[in-house]
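Reviewer comment 2.1 asked that we show a complete input and output for one of the modelled complexes. We chose the zinc ion case, as it is the one discussed in the main text.
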Amino acid sequence: MESAVERALRTRIISWVQERAEANGGFLHRAELLDFRIDEQRLPIIDYSRGIRNPASFESTLSIVSATNGPYDDTESEDGLLHYSYREGDPWSGDNRKLRNAMATGAPLILFRKEVPNIYTPVSPVYVVEDYPEERTFIIALDESFTFVPDVRRMPDNQRSYARRLAKQRLHQPAFRTRVIVAYETRCAVCELKHGSLLDAAHIVPDSDERGIPTVNNGLALCKIHHAAYDQDMLGVTPDFKVRIADNLLEETDGPMLKHGLQEMHGRSIQVPKRRADHPSQELLAWRYERFIAQV
Ligand SMILES: [Zn+2]
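Response of the prediction step:
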């Protein structure tokens, strides 16, 4: 059984991580996670060198880190669940014991995706749902309901597609947001607003299209209003990075948001990331701009 103290601490840490990530734009910096304190006592939320955090006073694992290469995590399986390898050494003691304990007690943990050095995207709560000793692997699920599935390897199709949908919402979209917002240095490409909590990662080619992949080149960091305007073709971006506002909006007369927030953006250049490799793809911008033109 998980102790009441541990459970209360865990709940507090998970909420703190969620709030802090939301304020930053969906991620936390390494230093924030290492310097976390509870009642003056330092309680790091990650173990920087080991990728799994098992505080000495905790019976179950608090957090795990998965490093990613590219838009998809290689620990992810086709079924939308995560395959987490046993830690080195004895499968029945230390880190492995505490992970197994999280499975036994159903204790929620935090999965951090490390998209960029020193930047962590939290996915929480997640649950350890299976243990495959012969493969030295734990299965991690994004929803408590999977703890009730007798064998996740033989999940019925409807559950499998639910797991995949969940992976898209809770793993891929947050990871995309982090990569884009970090590349744009937490700044709206159109108006330069610098509040992470008011920024989104907009897809240039929507993710419903097969070319709408979650890479930085298919993204723009936009504030909430410019994101919505972009999605509704009220605002367009030309392949050479110029902002265009739809004609009907330019002709309207209204208050300061229309005037300063939209009309005055017409003709400005978007702010692109410093790294050339992170620039939005001109080809994808051209595809999207065609759609904008067709609407106007
Ligand atoms: Zn903006």
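The chain has a mean pLDDT of 92. We note this here for comparison with the apo prediction described in Section 3.2.
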